[in-house]
Specification:
With 87 residues, the chain is mainly alpha-helical. The protein contains five helices and no strands. The longest helix is centred in the last third of the chain and has 22 residues. The protein is elongated.
């Protein structure tokens, strides 16, 4: 019965998954900090302030289409930077 009491159910996250969950936001923040200032601003306006591409375009003096393209390129850059970190 002691063995049963000490068995951890498979759906309970272990310490390694908790650590990974804590490291992920730091990885994203570090990768974002390495972006050009314009791209950092775009990410902040989009995900922190929750603005639309049109609103961001007005703030940054660019068209909505230009912001959409910049957003796409920025996310691809972040994705590549994060993929390089994975071992």
């Amino acid at each position: 019965h002691l063995d049963e009491a000490l068995t951890i159910p498979s759906d309970v996250p272990g310490p390694e998954s908790t650590l990974e969950a804590q490291e992920e936001p730091l990885r994203v923040l570090t990768a974002t900090a390495a972006l050009a200032p314009e791209r950092q601003r775009l990410i902040t306006l989009k995900y922190v302030d929750g603005l639309t591409n049109a609103e961001i375009g007005r703030i940054m003096g660019r068209s909505e289409g230009a912001i959409k393209a910049l957003h796409h390129r920025t996310l691809r850059q972040l994705q590549k930077a994060l993929a390089r970190e994975v071992v």
